[in-house]
Amino acid sequence: MASAEGQAQATSAAEFQRPRMIRFSDCDPAGIVFYPQYFVMLNGLVEDWVSEGLGIDYHALISERRIGLPTVRLEADFRAVSRMGDHVSLGLAVERLGSRSMTLVLRCFEPDSGELRMQVKQVIVTTSLESHRAVEIPHDMRAAILSSGMAPRA
Amino acid sequence: MASAEGQAQATSAAEFQRPRMIRFSDCDPAGIVFYPQYFVMLNGLVEDWVSEGLGIDYHALISERRIGLPTVRLEADFRAVSRMGDHVSLGLAVERLGSRSMTLVLRCFEPDSGELRMQVKQVIVTTSLESHRAVEIPHDMRAAILSSGMAPRA
Amino acid sequence: MASAEGQAQATSAAEFQRPRMIRFSDCDPAGIVFYPQYFVMLNGLVEDWVSEGLGIDYHALISERRIGLPTVRLEADFRAVSRMGDHVSLGLAVERLGSRSMTLVLRCFEPDSGELRMQVKQVIVTTSLESHRAVEIPHDMRAAILSSGMAPRA
Amino acid sequence: MASAEGQAQATSAAEFQRPRMIRFSDCDPAGIVFYPQYFVMLNGLVEDWVSEGLGIDYHALISERRIGLPTVRLEADFRAVSRMGDHVSLGLAVERLGSRSMTLVLRCFEPDSGELRMQVKQVIVTTSLESHRAVEIPHDMRAAILSSGMAPRA
Questions:
Q1: pTM for the structure as a whole
Q2: Do C25 and A31 touch (CB under 8 A)?
Q3: B69-105 pLDDT tens trace
Q4: Can you say whether residue C106 is alpha, beta or left, with left for phi > 0 and alpha for psi between -120 and 50 degrees?
């Protein structure tokens, strides 16, 4: 994973970040985040990135434009536990921008120390929600990613 | 429910409120909030109320002081659907403050029109997490509720 | 709740039941069922009742016939905790069959002792998923409820 | 992923399997499984494997023996969507058995056609729930895995 981590470092200047508190409902009987819940949190981060970072209405994208953003592959590393009440930061960087897919590096870290709690490298595809087949990344989304300075240089 | 609603109105001056966006992960295949998810959201509101409204560390309450706040009874009315992307407000008022329990009125509403989406009247009990038996509401919590002006007059 | 409980007893001969194990993912940091998760479990019971008890394809009802079964009101009592690993029974009885709505009594209990863990009286409405407005209970569903012997006598 | 898939094929004779119906509550506004929910389902499969496949009380392992089974790394591929009402099979194979960790290959597939819906290669570690540090895989668990015929040959 050395290269993926290097990449995450390299793109951190252009990382979209949001704070998040770890809630009671995120945690399991061991008192720590139930790991599938990290993916729920990070799905919310993608939602915020599209809406606030790119300025594209995520909910209209899905319910009106009928474009989905399913995950086709992910690699996740869990490094340290997060406990109920922790104030963490969630970050998103674009590692690769393809024609019908993109690779995101998403991570959860402790904002003061920078301690990495977990990190995911995730390939998402733009699909038609009618056919569930891949379609081109919509022009406005691609343009917004390019103009955000978050896209990696070719 | 006329009396419960009247009560909710009456206590609205002392309502603890937080904004919440309805997320993709809150919604079901009908595109609207999956109703159990309202209870997850409102559990988060109780968490914020205890921590921020009352100034009591909710997570330490549970993990260190071993005091739980389980629900023993609730009555919920669902009036209007909430859709993905909706920006709603969540509100909490104290209807009754007993010795080992309290009754909260929790609601989700549209902040501009005031349209009520759902409302719950919920009895929560303070318990020992060792025995799962009711214990007195901790002194600091009772004092904070009384000094917050949110407790109903006797 | 005396009448609701009496009703639950009275209709127990015609109760649709399914076993369920309490899973790690159902439980909170207190090691007991996180209460919103009871509603997720009971939503699954309604799903099984419609599909297996009534013989009506629940998923086609929603995705093809575009009929939803939202909850408009519920009253829940939580009597005893359920812990991870517990083997419980879930039960469903029809308390009232209206023209566009019905009242269900749903409960979770310990199968050997009969100990009640929680019980919900829940009003569900049949709606059009296009308009989210109430529609008549579909004929096949009404007929199946009547022929199942689960409908209360008028 | 060619080797991981080959491995999954190779170990399929010793795959622990359970049927699962895709529920309403598993699905998102696109009408398909919300991907974090696959991890919830597969966490349930690990629970069943430990309890039923290995004959070790999973819940006592956590709540009494205070041994956790957190995931430290996973790689997941999502190949085809699962829809509400689908009857799928979940499968678990042991790819590697270390001293304090093991690698599992978990998958969701359509039982008749064998169509793969998603697959995860997941490294889980046995930890002390007091310190959240890795500990040796308990003897009874190791012995049960070895005697189950599911452990890969050295």
A1: 0.91
A2: no
A3: 999 999 999 999 999 999 999 999 999 999 999 999 9
A4: beta
